[in-house]
Fold each of these.
Amino acid sequence: MKEKDRKIKGLIFVISGPSGSGKTTLVNRLLDGRDLKNKLVKSTSFTTRPHRSAEEPGKDYFFITRDEFNALRSAKKILEWTRYLGYYYGTPKDHIDKQLKKGKNILLCLDFRGALKIKRLYPGNTVTIFVAAPSLTMLQKRIEGRCSRTRKEEIRQRLKLARQEMRNSRKYDYRLVNKSLQKSVGELKNIVLGRLSN
Ligand code: 5GP
């Protein structure tokens, strides 16, 4: 175990999945459940992408400008970051450091690059979980439902990235196929509780 890992008591669960896999709903259901209340803290990322109407600023994301993002990056306030469809996303470093020092367990929803970066930074404390959609047809339907009809290019890009992410899924510690929300919440909860009790 590396020196850095030895100092950390908590676990970091990183959840990834392509756009349309249903991972956000899954994670929200997981956090709402009684079993994990107070055991897991979700980190809220910074993003420069526009705010969607259903999203709550400060809970789903901290919506910031590109200049603000660059300033945070220069000040080393971002632990890891990615560029996705032209927008920037980053994990707040101070929040993670604070929670880890307190021995809290953290939940992060990141893309493939972010998941691997966190695993590299905290190899002994990171658990990576991939949420796959049951099929590419299902994924396409969900992505089309989310993006406005006029944004054909965004749909195409999201599907391309989704296929890439599906190919990377074997690099994760766990992979679950989100066929039914209820079943998947149960599976995810079992993974998390199982690792927390080790
Ligand atoms: P969306 O725009 O659909 O909310 O997110 C696009 C992708 O960025 C998703 O795969 C999401 O998990 C990922 N993501 C969100 N925040 C972060 C972050 O802070 N870092 C990284 N690496 N990926 C992120």
Note: Residues 19, 45, 49, 80-82, 84, 89-91, 109-111, 113-114 surround guanosine-5'-monophosphate (CB under 6 Å).
Amino acid sequence: MPPMPRVVAVDPRAPDRDAIAEAVGVLRAGGLVALPTETVYGLGARALDAKAVARIFAAKGRPENHPLILHVLDEESARRLAASWPERASRVARALWPGPLTIVVDRAPGVPAAIAGGGDSIAVRSPSHSVTRAVIAALGEPVAAPSANRYQGLSPTTAAHVVAQLGDAVDLVLDAGACEEGIESTVVDVRGASARVLRPGAVGAAALRAVLPELEVEARLERAAPGALRASPGMGARHYAPRARLVLVESLESARSLAVELAARGARVGLVVRERAGAVPASVLVRELPAGAGPYAHLLYRTLHDLDDAGVGAIVVHDVPSDETWSAVADRLRRAAESA
Ligand code: TXA
Ligand code: MG
């Protein structure tokens, strides 16, 4: 186990003022605070403090050309970070903020390029989680926050996941329990002639299309060509991966057989399914996830973290349906299955 950071429990129904003040103190001093959001835990720093932002990259072991998301309270604050705020950005922000949607726009000249991985765009999101909102409000500034995991690792959906991956590389963890969505925000680029989903996420394509009929969903192309490079920096190949090798298998029966076969070679094996798996040896740890995309997404990372903690050598996953409601889960499973 890595050295423990300070962990403070906060009730999301009534965030404790002292805990929020402590988090703001750490941020003002240039420190890192792990913050609960409705999607996953974020690794927060003052976005406009270049040194603090550099610490985020160091703590995660993340390449410096991978841009970060800026977290703000509302559209008004987001606009101030953007060189231009297209009408489309207003439309989605008004319909879906606060919530698990990240909007990519042109970066304002005053916003440090380091946050944007050196690029000229910026990603902004207004989270709905009461604790993170209270921190941003008390700080009075935007908070940069990637998911609070090591580079390419599994996103944390509990404070314990953050501690296990980052140890005392983070100064303070605000623990508000398990994240509601359990999967990251949807990233949509509203620059240019049409809107594009760069990362499918907690806001489904149908909900986005209701506000942006012109939407293009890149993830569908990627599903046909796994491993292909993306337009969004920091989105290449392996990502969102457990420590154990993850193998995606199309049919339930083949998934079960593969898990049994791998277990016969002596390793403990995880088997993640959406229906009853049938009889398997005790060394196959079966995890039955819900049949619906939302509830499945809510439990996916937690299940993979649990299997990693149980010391499995491999995780066999029965693949998910190919319809659009599953696109975020399908995307994460494909990336997790990429070899390093
Ligand atoms: O739900 C979430 O989005 C969580 C919580 C903490 O807010 N954050 C998160 O951050 O997932 P991170 O850094 O792990 O992922 C950010 C994603 C990456 O896929 C990155 O490529 C994309 O957003 N992104 C960030 N800035 C971008 C930009 N300027 N242009 C294109 N994509 C960008
Ligand atoms: Mg991440």
Note: The pocket of magnesium ion (ligand 2) is lined by residues 146-147, 155 (CB under 6 Å).
